[in-house]
């Protein structure tokens, strides 16, 4: 049995032995089953899930995208859906709930047990993009008065429900967070050691309204499995786990990369986004950049005299302005990424500018040498000189623009990732036109 | 006390109370101390580490970049270095060792205990970029014949040495990997349950020579804390942990983003790379793209007649070819990222092309409308028509080139991320010149 033969069986091309399918799916990882359901998009229905026990159904559901979950939820009878939803991780359950319409939410809630109802209501109330929205309520708390043995007994009773009990959180009577203890520490300690004596008091807690990206970066920075989330009164309200942090970082990286290609925000993944969504995400920057390029056009129009007197100049136009744009793209790409990883800050601009000027100077000189020969061949000594000189200055200007733009954007409160390739290229193009024909006019007219 | 006052004290601007510094650093996270050392670059020496106990010194060292570690290692007396290195995590220790010169390695080894020596030699022998190179030897193994109680006793004895004992690996007498057991399961089980009865047999093991990015993606996909690494005989040789996976993913993302800006591989971070390294990473693509743009130049030269007869055409040149390049950058950015996250595969090209053609058609039409008015104003009805028509076709061509190039690159065995903005722009530029002046010649001459 393989996912391929399973697909054949589902499509009726092969005989399906229900027991064989059941055994195959029981041995498969939920993430792989979810991937299978995604690849055979037309077939994301309950037929495959019917072969799984209810816990695994919930697990597979957790690995699907929000849109796929909603489609499944809509096609299931209410009681069936309630049973699966009850088994889902608390954070994923709340996210799915948030994605349903109000009517669907009202229909689902009465079918759930009291505890799940309250849990969903609470988790679903936090604002998107905050720690509250990605945290889970599946964590274990202990009183500081317990001994290590009593603590282990408590965890034994509670463990089956909790997403992670690798670390248990120590709270006072008001659920105020005091510290935490790792499971190995509990096991290593003498049975009657008070937890107070072995707990770590540094909690690293984040506030429930903290930005999700900042929380994810902390999890990455401190190499922890989870961070506790507290409310304004320092009471623990949830934990954010390392796998959710990774999802957040991947999402933010995608957003940054899209920005670098002048693509706006996409609420759905590329494969699932509608034509209209894709159009909207792209049209703004394309039209905006047209207006930027009108300046380049105006620049060229301004130099009509020198151009019509020396038509061979046109041959080098794309080459020169593209080189400035390319050097600028390189500089902005390096800068924006270094800012995203936290390596470069606003204060580094001066030092970076000096280095960039040196690198760009060498790059421009290299390219001027390459282009001088072509200049001699296509236009003679005068044009070769103009072209080589323009190349050095254009690469230098493009690079310094590409380096500086992200700093300017931060300074005025924008995301530096907005310094996309196309934006830098458009600005460098204008500089390129002015530099090139300016030099040409000075030398040739 | 804060890191700022610590800096002042170190620079002699403020009185330093050694006890206060010691207490402040003891309460600070090792990652934060490392960040402080990085920001005060000139000061990465042993003065700050001297305030910490040896375990924390090793922890802080682990959070520094390779280059900073090496600089520190070189400035320490051998015995001092050996003591800290002994305390480091096995995987980080081996990486640092690999970064030293052969002479330095030979000097360090005799100062280490036998166990650490062998461990370093073994871990340092795996090829860069493989699971072996990022795995650690800090994991716990158990025999399947043990009871749950015996297993816990074993872990209690071994725990202090192990990076993660949240999951222990079950091996036979030859260290062949049979399965694994999570610590909570051990605690929950009745004390005399044989481990064989509670262990998970699905190991998810990766081979020691598997690509590190593929291993990291598995850890992300299966939401696990660690994956075991086995050799060709299925014997366990290490584990890769979630924090290393995150580092690998961040590194690979940086590489992809750099590629998207036509920047080649950088062995160091941007802030630490030398002028020569930065020059080398950038010059190849810049010069290569010059040759691409010679075709655009040749295209323009070919249409010299129609241009000199209608000079206003030049006004629209930057605008039109930039629009094609920008639309192409958008399409390739979306495609390359969707490929990196695994959402889009080679087989999706046909479906994606159809969607892209529709989106690009609408985008081109929108921009043609915007440009038609400018065409009327600058050049009259004929030129407006030529410009609008060219815009639709150029945006369409640029988009389809941007979408298709990543698929072509995969097909011929290249990384799709090589379809960078500048490369797509250069190709789209050539198409733009030919389409624009081709239409102009047909309508105006």
How is the secondary structure organized here?
Two copies of one chain form a homodimer.
Chain A: H1 3-10, H2 18-27, H3 30-39, H4 46-49, H5 54-63, H6 66-74, H7 78-87, H8 90-99, H9 102-108, H10 114-123, H11 131-134, E1 141-142, H12 148-158, E2 167-171, E3 177-182, H13 183-188, H14 195-198, E4 206-207, H15 212-222, E5 226-230, E6 236-241, H16 242-260, H17 275-302, H18 304-309, H19 312-315, H20 317-340, H21 349-379, H22 381-411, H23 421-444
Helix pairs in contact in A: 3-5, 5-7, 8-10, 15-16, 17-23, 20-22, 20-23, 21-22, 22-23
Describe the structure.
2 copies of one chain form a homodimer. Chain A folds into 3 domains: 3-126, MgtE N-terminal domain-like (MgtE N-terminal fold, Alpha Horseshoe); 141-250, CBS-domain, CATH 3.10.580.10; 278-444, SLC41 divalent cation transporters, integral membrane domain (Tetracycline Repressor, domain 2, Orthogonal Bundle), CATH 1.10.357.20. In chain A, 65% of the residues lie in helices and 6% in strands. Chain A is built from 23 helices and 6 strands. The first copy, chain A, has helices at residues 3-10, 18-27, 30-39, 46-49, 54-63, 66-74, 78-87, 90-99, 102-108, 114-123, 131-134, 148-158, 183-188, 195-198, 212-222, 242-260, 275-302, 304-309, 312-315, 317-340, 349-379, 381-411, 421-444; strands spanning 141-142, 167-171, 177-182, 206-207, 226-230, 236-241. In chain A, strand 4, helix 15 and strand 5 (226-230) form a beta-alpha-beta unit. In chain A, helix 3 (30-39) crosses helix 5 (54-63) and helix 21 (349-379) runs antiparallel to helix 22. Chain A is elongated and about 90 Å long. The model of chain A has no long low-confidence stretch (mean pLDDT 87). The interface between A and B is large, with 103 and 103 residues.
């Amino acid at each position: 049995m393989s996912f391929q033969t399973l697909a054949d069986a589902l499509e009726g091309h092969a005989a399906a032995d229900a027991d064989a399918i059941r055994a195959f799916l029981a041995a498969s990882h939920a993430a792989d089953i979810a991937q299978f359901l995604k690849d055979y998009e037309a077939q994301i229905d309950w037929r495959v899930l019917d072969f799984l026990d209810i816990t695994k159904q919930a697990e597979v559901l957790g690995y699907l995208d929000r849109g796929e979950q909603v489609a499944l939820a809509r096609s299931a009878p209410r009681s069936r859906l309630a049973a699966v939803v009850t088994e889902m991780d608390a954070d994923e359950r709340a996210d799915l709930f948030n994605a349903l319409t109000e009517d669907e939410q009202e229909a689902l809630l009465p079918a759930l047990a009291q505890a799940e109802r309250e849990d969903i209501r609470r988790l679903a109330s936090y604002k998107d993009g905050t720690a509250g929205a990605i945290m889970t309520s599946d964590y274990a708390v202990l009183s500081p008065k317990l001994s290590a043995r009593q603590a282990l007994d408590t965890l034994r009773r509670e463990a089956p429900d909790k997403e992670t009990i690798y670390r248990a959180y120590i709270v006072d009577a008001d659920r105020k967070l005091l510290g935490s203890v790792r499971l190995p520490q509990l096991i290593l300690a003498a049975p009657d050691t008070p937890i107070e004596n072995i707990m770590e008091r540094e909690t690293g807690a984040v506030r429930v309204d903290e930005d999700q990206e900042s929380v994810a970066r902390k999890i990455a920075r401190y190499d922890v499995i989870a961070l506790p989330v507290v409310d304004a009164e320092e009471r623990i309200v949830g934990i954010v786990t390392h796998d959710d942090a990774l999802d957040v970082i991947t999402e933010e990286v995608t957003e940054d990369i899209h920005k670098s290609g002048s693509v706006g925000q996409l609420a759905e993944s590329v494969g699932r986004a509608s034509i209209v969504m894709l159009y909207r995400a792209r049209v703004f920057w394309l039209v905006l950049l047209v207006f930027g390029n009108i300046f380049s056009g105006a620049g060229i129009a301004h130099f009509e005299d020198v151009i019509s007197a020396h038509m061979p100049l046109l041959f080098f136009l794309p080459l020169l302005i593209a080189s400035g744009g390319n050097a600028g793209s390189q500089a902005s790409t390096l800068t924006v990424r270094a800012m995203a990883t936290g390596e470069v800050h606003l204060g580094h601009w001066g030092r970076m500018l000096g280095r960039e000027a040196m690198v760009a100077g060498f790059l421009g000189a290299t390219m001027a040498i390459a282009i001088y020969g072509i200049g001699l061949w296509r236009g003679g000594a005068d044009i070769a000189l103009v072209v080589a000189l323009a190349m050095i200055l254009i690469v230098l200007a493009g690079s310094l623009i590409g380096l500086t733009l992200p700093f300017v954007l931060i300074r005025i409160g924008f995301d530096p990732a907005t310094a996309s390739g196309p934006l830098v290229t458009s600005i460098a193009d204008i500089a390129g036109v002015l530099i090139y024909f300016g030099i040409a006019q000075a030398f040739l007219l």
